[in-house]
């Protein structure tokens, strides 16, 4: 199977959508020789911040001389971004071979799998074949029935709890927290930065029931944000007798300090569990150099162009706060496109304090909202807005940005992926 055929096969799985449950993944992985049992894992769930936290954990491990896999979602431009070992995403030839092998296993088991189940199996198979010692595995959605929840992690991390995917996870924070607590395993340590009482109560209860040692932000570890630097954040970290002052993280936003704090705490637990190469130097180096496209990614400095895949109200609130802090209020020209199953009105409202204007756009996926619909969220506001349908017109708009302007592309990773690729004269090759 060549790469084009592999990509076409993955695209054919997209229509199967989401399916909560582990039976299919377990059957598929058994046919593949249970590759997920051949490496240690760190399982990272939560509403927001899980991708950044996973990337930081993987970077710390790789910088400690430990061969480390990273599995994240969604991708921006190619599915190969989802599966990395020591920072390198899978190549086309390797990807094609993995697709062929997993496809063969699917046919043998006659299990109808979704796109996410298929790619999860690919990731675990790749990590096993590459001899990864450990992998940072990001939950796709929820936790309890997510395809990744076949791993028994050395550490689980729950980054945050907010109202998202309510049609699948429940209508309250308590119910959503219950689903995400599914990644807490008996006797395995848990790290969390959740502070909302109803959600935290569910985490504490589940950890207690499963005898899982729990590390809480503000109690078991602390991270104090310092004055932001130009291209990231600085903070002090403290946990027990361990203290690291002046850590730098190359991702922007006060929430990234919290994510980095969780990553450091998880790394220290792994160190105490036998990964002796983790030390202060490897932690400092990793955080200072971590890269995660589409998370406050400064694609152009003058005039600024920022890509951020904020895709729910809470993420948009955090983005707005970071933009206002760095550029001031009412300075940002947003290019916004979102999915129909999101609270896009709430997202737009949460961006308003930073907004100078909105350009609405629809990325090339069926779930995307028609750009004219977004204007309803600005009813009563005098902020300039317009709908643009052609990607080439968006590119021209960005290229014509005047000195002193700030452009931010947001609302969905799909929106960011389409525009990010187009700005380089390319296009998104894989969509799911």
Characterise this structure.
39% of the residues lie in helices and 18% in strands. With 432 residues, it is an alpha/beta fold. The mean pLDDT is 92. The protein is built from 15 helices and 17 strands. Helix 2 packs parallel to helix 5.
Topology:
Blueprint lengths: L2 H11 L9 H9 L8 E6 L4 H14 L4 E4 L11 E3 L2 E2 L2 H18 L5 H15 L4 E5 L16 E4 L7 H4 L3 H8 L9 E3 L4 H13 L4 E3 L5 E4 L7 E7 L2 E8 L4 H19 L7 H10 L7 E5 L2 E4 L5 H15 L4 E5 L7 H8 L3 E6 L10 H4 L10 E3 L3 H9 L6 E5 L2 H11 L9
Parallel strand pairs: 1-5, 1-6, 2-5, 6-7, 7-8, 13-17, 14-15, 14-17, 15-16
Antiparallel strand pairs: 2-3, 3-4, 9-10, 10-11, 12-13
Helix pairs in contact: 1-4, 2-4, 2-5, 3-9, 3-10, 4-5, 7-8, 11-12, 14-15
Describe this protein with a few key phrases.
eight-stranded mixed β-sheet; 17 strands; 2 domains; six-stranded mixed β-sheet; 432 residues; 18% strand; Protein-Tyrosine Phosphatase, Chain A; UDP-N-acetylmuramoyl-L-alanine:D-glutamate ligase; alpha/beta
CATH class of the largest domain: Alpha Beta
> What is the makeup of the main sheet?
8 strands, mixed
Can you identify the CATH superfamily of the largest domain?
Answer: Mur-like, catalytic domain
Whole-angstrom Rg: 21 Å
Main sheet strand line-up:
4-3-2-5-1-6-7-8
Q: Give the structural class.
A: alpha/beta
Q: What general outline do the C-alpha atoms trace?
A: globular
Low-confidence stretches: none
Mean pLDDT across all residues, rounded? 92
Strand content: 15-25%
Query: Architecture of the largest domain, CATH level 2?
Result: 3-Layer(aba) Sandwich
| Residue share in helix | 25-40%
Distance between the termini: 20 Å
CATH topology of the largest domain: UDP-N-acetylmuramoyl-L-alanine:D-glutamate ligase
- Quick one: how many beta strands? 17
Number of domains: 2
Number of helices, where a helix is a run of at least 4 consecutive DSSP H or I residues: 15
